[in-house]
Structure of ribonuclease H:
Amino acid sequence: KDTVTVIQYVDDLLVAGAEQSDVEEEMVKLLNYLGQQGLRMSKSKVQFREKEVKYLGHLISGGSRRLSPERIARIIELLVPKTVREVRQFL
């Protein structure tokens, strides 16, 4: 049987798996558990049954991960540090 993966970073959750039915079953369990703990998910942020999702500035699809266009644009817009102090601040 395929497994479902749950990845958590601070308040972001990613639930993924090969079989949609397995993912849905685990999502129900997760949502019930969070509800029992008094926690809720924002409907506007939920990406459900998607082939590609945004997670922590990345687009994840079909087992691959790449930076989102917004994240790439922010990186390109960064000013090049010119002093040692600016380099330290950048790092």
Observations:
- The chain has a mean pLDDT of 88.
- The CA atoms of residues 48 and 70 lie 21 Å apart.
